[in-house]
Amino acid sequence: MTNTDTDIIIAGGGMVGAALACALAEQGFTITLLERREPDLEWPRDGYDIRVSAISRTSQNIFHNLGAWPHMTRRRVTPYEHMRVWESGGGTALPWAPQIQFHAADIGEPDLGHIIENRVIQGALWEQMQTLKNIEIRCPASISSLSLDEEAPSVILNDGTRMRAALIVAADGARSSLRELAGISTGGWGYDQTAVVCTVQAEAGNQSTCWQRFMPSGPLALLPMEQDLFSIVWSTTPKQAEKLLQMPPEAFDSALTQACEARPGRLRLLGERGAFPLRLQHAKQYIKPGLALVGDAAHVIHPLAGQGVNLGLMDMAELADILVLARNKGRPLGALHTLRRYERARKGENIAMQGAMDLFKRLFSNDIGPLRLARDLGMGLTEHAPLLKNLLIRNAMGILGEAPSLARAKQQG
């Protein structure tokens, strides 16, 4: 059996794990990143990833500060300046379909955020990792056993290599095998909803606008990509999702255009359709001696507000700050008194966001008369309350309150 040592082992090279590797390597830590499958860093320009993320301003700051943002803009990023949210009309409530509109100009910002394909984000972070000499990437690699303690936690890889570190980080997704090896349980529930995802072309262009319509079966989001394209996230019942996947393209185009009330004109499917079940999931613990969970390994959220990857990036930025502070004070990186600061900083905020999204999902995914009337009135009042609207959008952009150092804009000069 071969033995190797490193400062920090990161299991998982997705968006959050790769960002954490870059952040810690920039701070002088030696990093070993373990990933089962190396991402494809090249693809045809006219092909689109059906999985995208709505990147907040704080996440954009993180990518800037890690040096990965130029790699993303070289490939493809789409800023959006407007957001329109509305509810299906009719029913027992008001005679109109209430809506809320947000505009970047109202808060003095150039945009409200960016829509970026997941493969663009991951590919850019992998390119940046490869420029950092103190990151060792082992791929393909997986962990077969785990031993935890505060001083020298260790793993045994599938090839028999034993690796020791000061800290091990699980960034290996919602079905984290490292979390299971650590014996950390999860809570949560399924939503009995499936998200249908695809890329479409819009007759009237995307108008630099995110559109979201709430319907009793679930929300439909149109996320702008380039001038006349949208990435679609249509959350609906599993039965309806299966129908949407099986429809001929022309029938799907008609169903989608009708569902969004043709606001950006007629929509036309480009490429494949995909689907994934929706659920809420939260790890009972974020830490154990010598171990920390980040991103989807710690929490999974409903995609209706597009906050999943942003929460994970804030996890990793907070953890990076805490590990740098611990090293500077001569404290063990894997000690519980070190890691508890991370858990306290992130667990409550993540649970609060999960709770808010769960409430929104339950409030809007029904057609009960009194609830509908209350939410219709609430949307109408919010639309005519500029201060409240601006507060909501600034919060969604992540530009309210304290943020980890990586999530702050760099000072010029």
Describe the structure.
The chain has helices at about 15-25, 55-65, 70-75, 120-130, 175-180, 240-245, 250-260, 310-330, 335-365, 370-385, 385-395, and strands at about 5, 10, 30-35, 50-55, 80, 80-85, 100-105, 115, 135-140, 145, 155, 160-165, 165-170, 185-200, 210-215, 220-225, 230-235, 265-285, 285-290, 290-295, 300. By secondary structure, it is of the alpha/beta class. Strands 7-6-15-16-17-14-18-21 form an eight-stranded mixed sheet, sandwiched between helices. It has a six-stranded mixed sheet with strand order 9-3-2-13-20-19, with helices on one face. β15 (about 210-215) and β16 form a beta hairpin. The radius of gyration is 22 Å and the shape is globular. About 45% of the residues are buried. The mean pLDDT is about 90.
List the helices and strands and how they pair.
Blueprint: E1 3-5, E2 8-11, H1 15-26, E3 31-34, E4 52-55, H2 57-66, H3 69-75, E5 78-80, E6 82-87, E7 99-103, E8 113-117, H4 118-129, E9 135-138, E10 143-147, E11 154-157, E12 162-164, E13 167-170, H5 177-181, E14 186-202, E15 209-215, E16 218-225, E17 229-236, H6 238-246, H7 249-259, E18 267-283, E19 287-288, E20 291-293, E21 299-300, H8 308-328, H9 336-364, H10 369-383, H11 386-397
Parallel strand pairs: 1-12, 2-3, 2-13, 3-9, 6-15, 13-20
Antiparallel strand pairs: 4-8, 5-8, 6-7, 10-11, 11-12, 14-17, 14-18, 15-16, 16-17, 18-21, 19-20
Helix pairs in contact: 1-4, 1-8, 3-4, 8-9
